[in-house]
Amino acid sequence: MPTPQEQAAALKAQIDGAIQPIHHTAAEWETLNPVLKLNEIGIETDTRKIKIGDGKTAWNNLTYSGGVDAHESKDVSTSVHPNAYSHILMATPQTLADGANIDWDLALGGSAKVTLGGNRTLNNPTNAVNGARYYLMVIQDAIGGRTLSYGSAYKFPGGIAPVLSATANAKDIMMFVSDGTNLYLTGFVADVK
Protein backbone atom coordinates (compact mmCIF):
# COMPACT_ATOMS: atom_id res chain seq x y z
CA MET A 1 0.00 0.00 0.00
CA PRO A 2 1.53 3.37 -1.01
CA THR A 3 2.09 5.94 1.71
CA PRO A 4 0.14 9.22 1.60
CA GLN A 5 3.32 10.94 0.37
CA GLU A 6 3.69 8.41 -2.48
CA GLN A 7 0.01 8.84 -3.37
CA ALA A 8 0.41 12.63 -3.37
CA ALA A 9 3.52 12.34 -5.60
CA ALA A 10 1.64 10.09 -8.03
CA LEU A 11 -1.28 12.54 -8.15
CA LYS A 12 1.13 15.46 -8.70
CA ALA A 13 2.72 13.59 -11.62
CA GLN A 14 -0.74 13.05 -13.09
CA ILE A 15 -1.65 16.71 -12.55
CA ASP A 16 1.61 17.94 -14.09
CA GLY A 17 0.43 16.33 -17.34
CA ALA A 18 -2.85 18.30 -17.34
CA ILE A 19 -3.90 19.84 -20.65
CA GLN A 20 -4.70 23.51 -21.27
CA PRO A 21 -7.89 24.37 -23.24
CA ILE A 22 -7.49 25.29 -26.93
CA HIS A 23 -9.50 28.19 -28.39
CA HIS A 24 -10.65 28.66 -32.03
CA THR A 25 -13.77 29.90 -33.79
CA ALA A 26 -16.26 27.27 -34.94
CA ALA A 27 -15.15 27.77 -38.57
CA GLU A 28 -11.48 27.35 -37.63
CA TRP A 29 -12.23 24.14 -35.72
CA GLU A 30 -14.18 22.76 -38.68
CA THR A 31 -11.31 23.53 -41.08
CA LEU A 32 -8.57 22.23 -38.76
CA ASN A 33 -10.61 19.17 -37.69
CA PRO A 34 -7.92 18.00 -35.23
CA VAL A 35 -7.98 14.95 -32.98
CA LEU A 36 -7.92 16.26 -29.41
CA LYS A 37 -5.94 14.31 -26.84
CA LEU A 38 -7.81 12.36 -24.17
CA ASN A 39 -9.66 14.90 -21.95
CA GLU A 40 -8.21 17.84 -23.90
CA ILE A 41 -10.67 20.73 -23.97
CA GLY A 42 -11.55 22.63 -27.15
CA ILE A 43 -13.59 25.82 -26.97
CA GLU A 44 -15.38 27.56 -29.85
CA THR A 45 -14.76 31.21 -29.05
CA ASP A 46 -17.68 32.53 -31.10
CA THR A 47 -20.34 30.01 -29.97
CA ARG A 48 -18.90 29.29 -26.49
CA LYS A 49 -19.47 25.56 -27.09
CA ILE A 50 -17.03 23.01 -25.69
CA LYS A 51 -15.82 19.60 -26.84
CA ILE A 52 -13.68 17.17 -24.86
CA GLY A 53 -11.21 14.98 -26.76
CA ASP A 54 -11.08 11.21 -26.56
CA GLY A 55 -7.68 10.80 -28.25
CA LYS A 56 -9.08 9.25 -31.43
CA THR A 57 -12.12 11.13 -32.79
CA ALA A 58 -11.66 14.13 -35.10
CA TRP A 59 -13.24 17.44 -33.98
CA ASN A 60 -16.09 17.37 -36.51
CA ASN A 61 -17.25 13.98 -35.18
CA LEU A 62 -16.99 14.78 -31.44
CA THR A 63 -20.14 15.66 -29.52
CA TYR A 64 -20.39 18.96 -27.69
CA SER A 65 -20.08 18.87 -23.93
CA GLY A 66 -23.61 18.37 -22.64
CA GLY A 67 -24.48 15.61 -25.10
CA VAL A 68 -25.55 17.44 -28.26
CA ASP A 69 -24.14 15.96 -31.46
CA ALA A 70 -22.01 18.33 -33.54
CA HIS A 71 -24.18 17.64 -36.62
CA GLU A 72 -27.52 18.26 -34.91
CA SER A 73 -29.21 21.63 -35.17
CA LYS A 74 -30.68 21.22 -31.70
CA ASP A 75 -30.51 24.35 -29.53
CA VAL A 76 -28.75 23.29 -26.33
CA SER A 77 -30.38 26.08 -24.34
CA THR A 78 -33.86 24.55 -24.71
CA SER A 79 -33.24 20.83 -25.29
CA VAL A 80 -34.14 18.23 -22.67
CA HIS A 81 -35.20 20.76 -20.05
CA PRO A 82 -35.26 24.56 -20.21
CA ASN A 83 -31.77 25.80 -19.32
CA ALA A 84 -30.54 22.25 -18.71
CA TYR A 85 -27.33 22.89 -20.62
CA SER A 86 -27.15 26.61 -21.33
CA HIS A 87 -25.63 27.34 -17.91
CA ILE A 88 -22.83 24.85 -18.58
CA LEU A 89 -21.56 26.79 -21.59
CA MET A 90 -21.53 30.23 -19.97
CA ALA A 91 -18.30 32.11 -20.54
CA THR A 92 -18.37 34.21 -17.36
CA PRO A 93 -17.85 32.13 -14.23
CA GLN A 94 -20.07 32.69 -11.24
CA THR A 95 -18.29 33.94 -8.13
CA LEU A 96 -18.94 31.69 -5.15
CA ALA A 97 -19.29 33.35 -1.73
CA ASP A 98 -16.35 32.61 0.54
CA GLY A 99 -17.19 31.28 3.98
CA ALA A 100 -16.49 28.33 6.24
CA ASN A 101 -18.79 26.31 3.94
CA ILE A 102 -18.98 27.19 0.26
CA ASP A 103 -22.09 26.45 -1.83
CA TRP A 104 -22.08 25.85 -5.61
CA ASP A 105 -25.45 25.92 -7.39
CA LEU A 106 -24.61 24.47 -10.81
CA ALA A 107 -27.83 25.87 -12.27
CA LEU A 108 -26.26 29.33 -11.96
CA GLY A 109 -23.24 28.45 -14.06
CA GLY A 110 -21.11 25.53 -15.16
CA SER A 111 -17.96 27.41 -14.31
CA ALA A 112 -17.23 29.13 -11.04
CA LYS A 113 -14.44 30.72 -9.05
CA VAL A 114 -13.87 31.23 -5.35
CA THR A 115 -11.17 33.05 -3.39
CA LEU A 116 -10.35 31.23 -0.17
CA GLY A 117 -10.06 33.50 2.86
CA GLY A 118 -9.32 30.61 5.22
CA ASN A 119 -9.45 26.81 5.33
CA ARG A 120 -12.82 25.95 3.80
CA THR A 121 -15.25 23.15 2.91
CA LEU A 122 -16.87 22.95 -0.53
CA ASN A 123 -20.39 21.66 0.11
CA ASN A 124 -21.97 19.13 -2.22
CA PRO A 125 -23.09 20.91 -5.41
CA THR A 126 -26.76 21.33 -6.26
CA ASN A 127 -28.54 20.99 -9.64
CA ALA A 128 -25.94 18.80 -11.39
CA VAL A 129 -26.83 17.59 -14.90
CA ASN A 130 -25.92 14.05 -15.95
CA GLY A 131 -23.11 14.15 -18.52
CA ALA A 132 -22.33 17.82 -17.96
CA ARG A 133 -18.83 19.16 -17.40
CA TYR A 134 -18.08 21.74 -14.75
CA TYR A 135 -15.07 23.94 -14.02
CA LEU A 136 -13.93 25.48 -10.73
CA MET A 137 -11.11 27.97 -10.22
CA VAL A 138 -9.84 28.04 -6.64
CA ILE A 139 -7.85 31.18 -5.78
CA GLN A 140 -5.67 31.64 -2.72
CA ASP A 141 -6.06 34.99 -0.96
CA ALA A 142 -3.12 37.36 -0.36
CA ILE A 143 -1.96 35.16 2.53
CA GLY A 144 -2.13 31.78 0.74
CA GLY A 145 -1.72 28.32 2.21
CA ARG A 146 -5.49 27.82 2.45
CA THR A 147 -6.93 24.32 2.21
CA LEU A 148 -10.20 23.05 0.78
CA SER A 149 -12.17 20.04 1.99
CA TYR A 150 -14.89 18.54 -0.20
CA GLY A 151 -18.39 17.21 0.28
CA SER A 152 -18.99 13.51 -0.38
CA ALA A 153 -20.31 14.18 -3.91
CA TYR A 154 -16.82 15.14 -5.11
CA LYS A 155 -14.93 12.09 -6.38
CA PHE A 156 -11.19 12.01 -7.07
CA PRO A 157 -8.80 9.57 -8.79
CA GLY A 158 -7.77 6.98 -6.22
CA GLY A 159 -9.94 8.83 -3.71
CA ILE A 160 -7.24 11.49 -3.26
CA ALA A 161 -8.19 15.15 -3.65
CA PRO A 162 -5.61 17.35 -5.40
CA VAL A 163 -3.33 19.48 -3.27
CA LEU A 164 -3.98 23.16 -3.89
CA SER A 165 -1.14 25.55 -4.69
CA ALA A 166 -0.17 27.31 -1.46
CA THR A 167 1.36 30.48 -2.90
CA ALA A 168 -0.46 33.75 -2.18
CA ASN A 169 -2.94 34.57 -4.99
CA ALA A 170 -2.30 31.19 -6.72
CA LYS A 171 -5.02 29.94 -9.07
CA ASP A 172 -5.84 26.25 -9.54
CA ILE A 173 -8.44 24.96 -12.01
CA MET A 174 -10.47 21.77 -11.50
CA MET A 175 -12.50 20.10 -14.23
CA PHE A 176 -15.35 17.73 -13.40
CA VAL A 177 -17.88 15.53 -15.18
CA SER A 178 -21.18 14.72 -13.48
CA ASP A 179 -23.48 11.73 -13.34
CA GLY A 180 -26.27 13.98 -12.08
CA THR A 181 -25.35 13.37 -8.44
CA ASN A 182 -21.57 13.31 -8.11
CA LEU A 183 -18.80 15.41 -9.67
CA TYR A 184 -15.81 13.36 -10.83
CA LEU A 185 -12.46 15.16 -11.19
CA THR A 186 -11.23 14.76 -14.78
CA GLY A 187 -8.50 17.37 -14.73
CA PHE A 188 -6.53 19.67 -12.46
CA VAL A 189 -4.23 22.49 -13.51
CA ALA A 190 -2.11 23.90 -10.70
CA ASP A 191 -0.82 27.44 -10.26
CA VAL A 192 -2.12 28.90 -13.52
CA LYS A 193 -0.30 32.14 -14.40
Short key terms for the protein model shown above:
193 residues; mainly beta; six-stranded mixed β-sheet
In short:
The chain is mostly beta strands.
Beta-strand proportion? 25-35%
Count the strands? Answer: 12
Major beta sheet summary: 6 strands, mixed
Number of helices: 2
- Could you say which structural class the secondary elements and strand pairing correspond to? mainly beta
Question: What is the typical, i.e. mean, pLDDT?
Answer: 80
Shape: globular
For the biggest β-sheet, the strand order reads 4-6-8-11-12-10
Number of domains: 1
Roughly what percent helix?
A: 10-25%
Q: How far do the termini sit from each other? A: 35 Å
Instruction: Please trace the helix and strand order, writing H or E for each element.
Output: HEHEEEEEEEEEEE
Rg computed from alpha carbons, rounded to a whole number of angstroms = 17 Å
The residue ranges in which pLDDT falls below 50 over 5 or more consecutive positions are: 67-90
Structure in words:
The chain is mainly β. It has one domain. It is built from 2 helices and 12 strands, in the order H-E-H-E-E-E-E-E-E-E-E-E-E-E. Strands 4-6-8-11-12-10 form a 6-stranded mixed beta sheet, with no helix packed on it. It starts with a helix and ends with a strand.
